Amino acid sequence: MKKHKNNFKKVSYFSKTPVFPRFSFLLITIVFLIGLAAFTINYFSHSNVLQFFCSLSILIMSIYFIKSWILIRKEYNSSPLKKLKRFIKENKLYEEDIREVGTNENGSIKRRKIVVNSIYFLYKKTENNELIIRALKRADRFSDKANSYETLLSALFGLPLYKKIDEITYCDYIFELVPDERIILSHNPLKKTDTTIRVTHKIFYDISKVSHGLLVGSTGSGKSFYVNSKILDYARMGAELYIVDPKSADLSLIRFIEGFGEKRVASKPNQIARILREVNEIMENRYQKHFREVSAFGKTFLDFSLPPVVIVIDEWAAFIQGVDKKLHDECSRYLLQLILKGRASGCFVELILQRPDTSFIEGAVRDSIGCRIALGNMSKQGYEMCFGSTDIDYKTITVKVGGYIQIDGQHNSPVYFETPLIQNNFNFLEELQSIISHPLRNPESNRNREADAQASERSVRVFSIN
Ligand SMILES: Nc1ncnc2c1ncn2[C@@H]1O[C@H](COP(=O)(O)OP(=O)(O)OP(=O)(O)O)[C@@H](O)[C@H]1O
Question: Which domains, and CATH codes, for the chain?
Fold first, then answer.
């Protein structure tokens, strides 16, 4: 079996069984015969001690070899190589042709069916415990169907398909050997701060590389619970949080937490516009102060110890539809600026929508959002508006907190995941309060926090003059 580039191993109809499993039976037989010969010689010798030790070592050796042989065969039989070879044969993924192979005794031409072409698969197991099966598209009769084996391959390996990536020259089927697990939210004493958002045990990202979030889902799909877990992650990294909750629902209760109040939590249109303006002002102020010189090239807010500033906006569509044109245009402009310009300065938007609609969020803006999530079942158009057009078959979501996620730089198509579990005894507001008042919350950025506060106060003054 040939090794392909990127550590892939190649399998086709023509692949041979590797040497060890192929000759292991022969090896065992040889060992057994040697043992038998030794036993016979030993039997006819007259020393009892020699007889005993010889018999014992023969017995141990035989057991060891038989066990190794069973293990090798077992490993080989369950290997992707053996399974894919069987798959190719049973599904006739090869081409035969009748060829002349000589002459018969009576002089007539001898013909035989021989295999002339086969589908080619590559496979590898990754460090993340994923099994990648790659069906090659070699411009032959197997190319058209290379992207249609998900059900068969799932059955072959007894694993659900995790991801499928359809490219011009190949189609990758990715299976998780160790399934991902949900995080269980629990009281988590702050030990150190970093800029990671944790989604599941396997899925997480750094906000300095992946900025902004879009969360879409119908009512009851788990959006608010999921955004709570994101808010805690942001709070742990020392972020300055602003909450926009036009429905005055659960999120607006954050105003009762010390340090939030009406200044940071808005429900009424004018308050919402003020908060959006304030965060824009902070962003512009940071650009003026830190990013004007050429030395700032390639730097981000982390290089200047600036805390992230995050604005969480629940039900953007409901809000923007219900305001007059002036406010609509103003708020839309602020949102757009933040999404397009916010990353380097550390100003981020977490946008929550009941359904993705291009009238609320345009394709180009959506594409600037690094982490996009659709919770619950959605129509094809719904998925398309959230992730752009992809070639994946979204499975029916039966678990309430299940959905699809696509993170820039990590996934080139959406993958299934389940949001962190929030148990009944977990008190989100208490946890947020304990994080916010923790002394470890990014002490070195306090100075910059003050500068931001001055900027936002200036913005409030401008707003009240307006
Ligand atoms: N991560 C979770 N852990 C535990 N329970 C959850 C989780 N997510 C959702 N639920 C359950 O589902 C219910 C609905 O979730 P949630 O309120 O987050 O939905 P939603 O999408 O925000 O709905 P709406 O748009 O109506 O506000 C919750 O009250 C809770 O019982």
Answer: 1-175 (no CATH), 184-465 (3.40.50.300)
